[in-house]
C-alpha cells in the first residue's frame, strides 16, 4: 500500500495561518521566535543532564568565547546562546561572558566516610575547598607526605541538601580507595544547572 505524499508547503502555510489567528507573530508560529519574543512552547527546565551542554558552559566559565565553547562541546552556537539566555546562566560584561556560578551546581568526587562519593554543591567556596582537598590527596599518593592530608583534618563540605561530608584524611583508607577506584578527572568535576 503506497503512502500518501505529504504537501509540506501546505502544512507550513496552515501552521502560519493558525499562528496568526492566535495573535502571535509569524516567527513564533514557525517555532523560531525572535529575540525577546516568547516561544509558544513552554521552555523545559532541565538540569545539565546532557554532558555536551555542561561542557559548553564550563568552557565559557574558563574564559573561552561562546563560539569556541559551543564548537568544542559539540553543540550549536545558537542552541548554547538560547540555553544561556533562557536560564540566565551568563551575561556579557566588558565584551566577555561571565557565568553566574551561583546558578550552577557542581558535581565532584570526594573521599569521605571511607569511600568515594559524588557530591553536588552550589557553594563555590565548598567546591573550591573540596577540589583543594582532592589535589592534596593526589599529592599525598605521589609523595607519601602525610602533612598534605593533615591540613584538611576536620574540614567538610555541605551538599545541596545540607548533608555534611567530612574529608577522609586516614592514609590507609586513602590508599585502599586509590587502588580500587580508577581515576577519571574529566568525570570527577562537572557543572549542572540548578
Commentary on this structure:
- With 194 residues, the protein is of the alpha+beta class.
- It folds into two domains: 51-99; 104-193, no CATH class.
- Helix content is 43%, strand content 18%.
- Strand 1 and strand 2 form a beta hairpin.
- It starts with 7 loop residues before the first helix and ends with a strand.
Biggest sheet: strands, sense, closure? 3 strands, antiparallel
Strand order across the largest sheet: 4-3-7
How many DSSP-defined strands?
7
Average of pLDDT: 82
As a percent range, the share of strand residues is 15-25%
Helix content: 40-55%
> What is the count of distinct domains?
2
Alpha carbon gap, first and last residue? 50 Å
The tally of helices reads 8
Helix-strand string: HHHHHEEEEHHEEHE
Give the C-alpha Rg: 24 Å
Q: Structural class, from secondary structure content? A: alpha+beta
Which spans of ≥5 residues are poorly predicted at pLDDT below 50?
none
Morphology:
elongated
Task: Sum up the structure in keywords.
single chain, 194 residues, alpha+beta, 2 domains, 8 helices
Task: Summarize the entry for a quick read.
The chain has about 190 residues and is an alpha+beta fold. About 45% of the residues lie in helices and about 20% in strands. The protein has eight helices and seven strands; from the N terminus they run αααααββββααββαβ.
Summarize the topology.
Blueprint: H1 8-22, H2 26-30, H3 51-61, H4 66-73, H5 77-87, E1 90-93, E2 96-99, E3 104-112, E4 115-121, H6 124-143, H7 147-150, E5 156-158, E6 164-166, H8 171-180, E7 189-193
Antiparallel strand pairs: 1-2, 3-4, 3-7, 5-6
Helix pairs in contact: 3-4
Amino acid at each position: 500500500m503506497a503512502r500518501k505524499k505529504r504537501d509540506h508547503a501546505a502544512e507550513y502555510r496552515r501552521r502560519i495561518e493558525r499562528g496568526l489567528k492566535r495573535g502571535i507573530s509569524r516567527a513564533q508560529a514557525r517555532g523560531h521566535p525572535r529575540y525577546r519574543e516568547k516561544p509558544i512552547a513552554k521552555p523545559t527546565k532541565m538540569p545539565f543532564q546532557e554532558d555536551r551542554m555542561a561542557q559548553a558552559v564550563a568552557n565559557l566559565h574558563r574564559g573561552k568565547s561562546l563560539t569556541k565553547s559551543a564548537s568544542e562541546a559539540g553543540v550549536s552556537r545558537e542552541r548554547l546562546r538560547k540555553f544561556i539566555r533562557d536560564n540566565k546562566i551568563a551575561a556579557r560584561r566588558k565584551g566577555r561572558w561571565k557565568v553566574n556560578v551561583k546558578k550552577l551546581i557542581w558535581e565532584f568526587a570526594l573521599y569521605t566516610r571511607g569511600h568515594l562519593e559524588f557530591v553536588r554543591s552550589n557553594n563555590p567556596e565548598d567546591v573550591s575547598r573540596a577540589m583543594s582537598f582532592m589535589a592534596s590527596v593526589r599529592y599525598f599518593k605521589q609523595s607519601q607526605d602525610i602533612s598534605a592530608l593533615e591540613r584538611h583534618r576536620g574540614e567538610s563540605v555541605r551538599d545541596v541538601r545540607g548533608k555534611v561530608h567530612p574529608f577522609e584524611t586516614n592514609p590507609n583508607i586513602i590508599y585502599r580507595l586509590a587502588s580500587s577506584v580508577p581515576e577519571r578527572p574529566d568525570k570527577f568535576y562537572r557543572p549542572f544547572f540548578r
